[in-house]
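Escalation from tier 1.

The customer reports that the assembly of two entities below gives different structure tokens on two consecutive runs. Tier 1 could not reproduce it. I'm attaching the input and our single run for tier 2 to review.
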Amino acid sequence: MEPILSVRGLSKSFPGVQALDGVNFDLYPGEVHIIVGENGAGKSTLTKCILGAYIPEKGEIYFNGERVEFKHSRDAIEKGISAVYQEFNLVPYLDVAHNIFFNREYMSKIPGIIDKKKMHNEAKKILESLNVDYINTATKVKDLDVAEKQMVEIAKALSTNPKIIVFDEPTAPLSSREVDAFFKKINQLKESGIAVIYISHRMHEFEFIGDRITVLRDGKYIGTVNIGDVSDDELVEMMVGRSVSQIYTRTENKYSKEALRVENLFDKKGNVIDASLYVRKGEIVGLAGLVGAGRTELVRLVFGIDKIEKGSIFVNGEKVIPKSPTHMMKLGVGLLPEDRKEQGLALSLPVALNIVMVSLRQLFKKYFINKKKTEQISNKYIKELNIVTPSVNSIVKYLSGGNQQKVVIAKWLLPDPDIIIFDEPTRGIDVGAKMEIYGLMDKLASAGKAILMISSELQEVIGLSDRFYILYEGRIVSESKKGELSEQEIGMKMLAGR
Amino acid sequence: MRDNYILKNSLKQLFSLFGLIAIIIISSILSPRFLKIENLITILRQSSILLILSLGLTGVVLTGGIDLSISAIAAFVGCTIAQLLKSGMSIPLVFGIGLIVGGVIGIFNGILVGKLKMPPFVATYGMMMVVNGLSLIMMQGAVIYGLPKKFTWLGVGYMGSIPIPVVLAFLVSLFFIILFRKTVFGAELYILGANKTAARYSSIPVDKNLILIYGISGLTAGFAGIILTARLDAAEVAMTDVFGLQTVAAVVIGGTSLLGGEGGAFGTVIGALILTIVVNIMNLTGISSFFQPIVMGVVIIFTVFIDVVSKRRQ
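Tier 1 run:
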């Protein structure tokens, strides 16, 4: 069979970076081809070249055996290449149907008037085929949640009847039920001969949908392998370029006294119901559960972002009613939020100011800021956490995801809290940075910090936690020590609460 | 360059400075009288009230907000203190009351925006109408004039050859430059403007800071109202109408982003000077005052255009 898309010797550079360096890539009809690599490996640059968003400096792209040179993303769309990006490209105040057919609206006989009925019917068909017909085509996109928006993006990409479709981390915002429906759809697409390029960090997903994997590292082509031919460890080794003896290493710690205790906690909206847990110093405690099980809501109560309805919280043995993050920070509690761009960072400000953000009032008691001190402290953390940035004054926006996450971590290490809550600490970052963060969490626990960690990656919870709780529909349904439950048992409790 | 914050910010202020220098050069060519010392001092004096008003606003804009009520507050404070001075109250006391009145109205704005989470545009627009209404009721259409000489010295006096309002505007500028650049509170304003949610998660007291900066904006407006009253030796409801939204223009021309998190007080000084010089040179060259708003509008649109284009480049 001839490949539908063939890339040969593709190179592209940006000032100071060789983003792609002679990359080869073949895509066959009816294949799901996964591209993996650390952040900055060149995955996005490669797909953007294929989509006509970037113009490569060297190399050729063949579409159906014919050499093509896309000057604009329109050229790629005309050939039948469409994409679902990580960031949403939807118009919030238009309804779902209109978003799906945006710029390609069905017109009625009267010029300038949209045929709404036809558009809604067609939109409905696509949503049905995605198994998400509960999304009303007349709802405005701004009223949808993140997962629903993602499904609309996918519907939009499918509505052009593409021959090649590119997904960039498509499952990140989806719940497991939606992920299942989405995978079914991908398998359908495969059967109908559509070729799929799939970028993802989530290795556990690959076996369900993928056929082949191409690995990139530092802009270079490392290799292409069939799924099933390599183990996860081998794949990680290809990605990071060094051997992975153990991803999750934990030091044996002695737990001392209790740092955080939550008793019979309820929130005001019914997302947290009668939750009780405790974390000791020197311990990493996991919080597992599906998206929407109430994990984030629970820690938001503890950190004083939302008000509690009923129940008690004890910090170092003293009962507290959390008033605000300011209040809890003073008591030695820190929270690294799940969404680093929305909740963690001031993206347009420099690295240094982001690092001292939490500690400004502690560091500079006399109201005046000492710029030198700020930079010294920031440099210390940049070195310690191995943050890759041109300087302390670089704007955080331009750092890679992993390095941004390390800035968030640095920001919370600086005030030296006793209790640190990590909400999805490794979401959307590459394997290398992940391992560094795991190592850091282990070190913090060894230093006597009490760590509470939320993670949607089951392996992470199992591998890192000394003890973990499982939440199901707002309730804690299980508490277990490391190794007490099998993966199946954990999965069952997460999915069905028993 | 695009990823270095310090470089990027100083370049932006440098651009405003270049704009100012360009306008000065053009003006000196257009009129031989422009560079005369007396004229330069006139420009500084004319810009002083606008500058003081705009400096308070700058802090609010840094947080991504806006304060449309400052001109109304300045007028209200002006009318209030004129009444009090007429009743024979001592000047320091009246001065203090004027500042407090401005500050309190500002704090109300801060509560509407910070605590009640109202959009700043709507909250301060409403406040503008309320304060204007209060001025109307208080003044009953009257104009108060003939204020104590010791008081009007604040507006018409000199220190050496420098008018007092210029000295005061200089001090207020210095205060705000230090406040924004060198203090914890200033740094927190930038963080607030860049991302309020992240600021809250980072244990920065967002609500308190907002209340404080709107309070400072109101207080500064009150101060401007006092100086203006002294300078005019009169107070009436419409005394600040000439400023309109020039304050916002001065802030934006100075390079402070209306989206927040970017800019500073030094830029606002340049912005206020640019606006004042444009009016000054039109007067010197005898351009009809009917045309002046058009020129002003074009200057404002042009500066913002340059800003938008340079951003798109990035």
